[in-house]
Write a structure and sequence with these properties.
This protein is about 40% helix and about 20% strand. It is an alpha/beta fold. The chain folds into two domains: about 290 residues, Rossmann fold (3-Layer(aba) Sandwich); about 40 residues, no CATH class. Helix 3 runs parallel beside helix 4. The longest helix is centred in the middle third of the chain and has 17 residues.
């Protein structure tokens, strides 16, 4: 894939600067470095920290401007108040992809919201692509990339799911659950406050990424319903999109607005939008993964007709009722098929 889409610099970077990399155990700056190295990232890693000359066995640099080579992506894990000046340095270095893991933006109140507004303005002015702020990071299990730029505990398992989460901790929990369910994923993006990249960006990107064969969304709000509908309608013709949309109740909606600084829309409108866009809505994590498992292990049917093969009448009748209640129909078998079946089935 060529470097056409802004997300390529983040999901398929040839080199990464970890700004805020650390030798201090149990800090995000240290954990992120460990994940990148343990998962075997195939590009170059440049730890950035003015206090250390070596971090996790790699030469460290005071700033990105001290690195001689080109850098595709900056992974930022520093105090929110230093983020804007670091973005200026990244721009001077020619870095186009940025993941800001740091919290302290619009989820914290008006001062944080102002800081995030300035961050978004800089990203826009500099022509960069930003995931975050206040997020868990990104993962790409493609063997050519092997990118685990995420501080979830377990190392990712390869599979066919593209997963977008608006919640960091939930995203981290999901990465752990997928392993237990024997489900893997192709790419994962924790969008956090979605100052730039949101679910729309991921859908648009993954529509043409071949190893993402299904898209899963955890969302608390839909930022731009019109754009979402257009992109999802196009993508669901090629691959399934499953969504767990939280904030269904009024109390849940107000909790969502304090969580990632977004206001949850009226749920009825969201429900209608997902239906119109061909998105399959699930209401529990268990159902989200049950459906994903079906899409991972079974070919997607061409239509709504189902034939049942059974050695007993009772279960066949129950299965027939379920098929019809789920809006599908019993397939009509042709005479030729019936003849063929009669030739070897008991009378």
């Amino acid at each position: 894939m060529s470097y056409m889409h802004g997300l390529d610099k983040i999901m398929r970077p040839r080199s990464i600067a970890v700004i805020g990399a650390s030798t201090k155990e149990h800090t995000i700056g240290s954990d992120i470095m460990k994940r990148l190295l343990e998962y075997g990232y195939t590009g170059n890693i440049y730890p950035i920290n003015p206090k250390d000359s070596e971090i996790h066995g790699l030469k460290a640099y005071p700033s990105v401007l001290d690195v001689a080579d080109d850098i595709d992506m900056a992974l930022i894990v520093i105090n929110a108040k230093y983020v804007l000046s670091v973005i200026d340095q990244c721009h001077r270095k020619g870095i186009k992809g940025v993941v800001v893991i740091s919290a302290g933006f619009k989820e914290t109140g008006s001062a944080g919201a102002e800081l995030e507004k300035q961050l978004a303005a800089k990203i826009h002015e500099y022509g960069m692509t930003l995931v975050g702020p206040n997020c868990l990071g990104v993962v790409n299990t493609d063997p050519a990339v092997r990118l685990d730029a995420c501080f979830a505990e377990s190392l990712p398992v390869r599979g066919d799911i593209g997963f977008v989460s608006q919640s960091g901790a939930l995203g981290g929990g999901i990465l752990n659950i997928l392993k237990d369910l024997n489900l893997g994923f192709a790419q994962f993006i924790s969008i956090g406050n979605q100052a730039d990249v949101n679910a729309d960006s991921a859908i648009e990107y993954w529509e043409n990424v071949d190893d993402v064969r299904q898209i899963l969304l955890y969302m608390e709000s839909i930022a731009d319903p019109k754009k979402f509908r257009k992109l999802a309608t196009s993508t669901t013709k090629k691959k399934p999109i499953l969504a767990l949309k939280a904030g269904r109740s009024a109390a849940g909606a107000s909790a969502a607005s304090s969580h990632t600084g977004s206001l949850a829309g009226a749920d009825k409108a969201a429900d209608a939008l997902l239906k119109q866009s061909g998105v399959i809505r699930e209401f529990t994590l268990q159902n989200l993964f049950n459906t994903a498992k079906v899409f991972s292990h079974c070919p997607i049917p061409k239509g709504d007709r189902v034939a049942i093969v059974t050695n007993s009448g009772g279960p066949g009748i129950m299965a027939t009722d379920t098929v019809v209640e789920c809006g599908m129909q019993m397939a009509e078998l042709s005479e030729a098929t019936k003849e063929k079946l009669r030739s070897f089935l008991p009378a």
